[in-house]
Amino acid sequence: MADAACGSVLGRIIFSDRPVEPTLVDGVPSLTTHMANGNGTPVEEIWLTDRPVRSGTAGKAVFAEDGEHLFYAARLGPQPVYRERVRELYETALRFTWERGYTDLVRMWNLIGDITSPNSEGVEIYRDFCVGRAEAFATWEAQFPQLPAATGIGTLSPGMELCFLATKQGRTVHLENPRQTPAYKGSQRNNTQIPSLKVADVV
Question: What phi, psi does 59 have (nearest 5°)?
Fold first, then answer.
């Protein structure tokens, strides 16, 4: 693991014509996902803070923190079945977050290639992903009992990217939309069962 000062940028998400492994660019954690067809200029989403930032790598993941907020990004390459590898990816991310003292998950983004296609077992890749994610959160339920809102959206290349923001305890307030059905209460199609979650993971 390497730490370095990187100004006031917590992270960059680049929507480009091909995916790139998460990396530090001039000390800033950068995640590049395949969301553009190559005919336009890549769009960037930049997360800033008014506090000094330190960034680094943790295995294949990149992160930055300012003592109050944490940005974390990782990529998982194409898999015949995602469940187990997604569980491992999430457990690694949750362990890292908890050990750094960021106990409140604010917002998560899951960028998933071929999201509605079947995996090698015929299960929709998004449902395959959801099982692994739910298993990881079940393991870490005691540490993270309050789940954040999250986005799951398709990309144009196989594999998936994960990035999220977390804070120190007591910095966030989670709200539920009473007119929307929580994702964890969604329909149970085909034979893949998603473990029950107590708090909505809004998709």
Answer: 65, -125
Q: What does the alpha-carbon distance between residue 34 and residue 6 come to, in Å, rounded to a whole number?
A: 25
Cβ-based neighbours of 159, under 8 Å, separated by 6 or more: 19, 75, 76, 77, 78, 79, 113
CB-based burial, 30-43: b 16+ in 10 Å, e otherwise: bbbbbbbeeeeeee
User: CA-CA distance, 96 to 138, in Å (whole number)?
Assistant: 16
Number of neighbours of residue 14 by Cβ within 10 angstroms:
18
Residue 23 has which token pair?
């990396």
Residues with pLDDT less than 70, the chain: 1-7, 170-176, 182-203
Structural domains of the chain, ranges and CATH numbers in brackets: 2-171 (3.30.1330.10)
173 Cβ contact list (under 8 Å, min separation 6): none
Contact in structure between 136 and 91 (CB atoms under 8 Å): yes
- The residue type of 45 is E
- Using DSSP, state whether 86 is helix, strand or coil: helix
> For residue 111, what are its two tokens?
């960028």
With residue 23 as reference, give the H or E element that holds it. strand 20-25
